[in-house]
Amino acid sequence: MESNPRAHGIRQVAITVADVDAALGFYRDVLGLAFLFRAGPELAFLDADGTRIMLTTPQGTGAVGANSILYFRVHDIAATHAAMRGRGATGEREPQLTARMPDHELWTAFLRDPDGNLVGLMEEVR
Question: pTM for the complete prediction?
Answer without folding.
Answer: 0.84
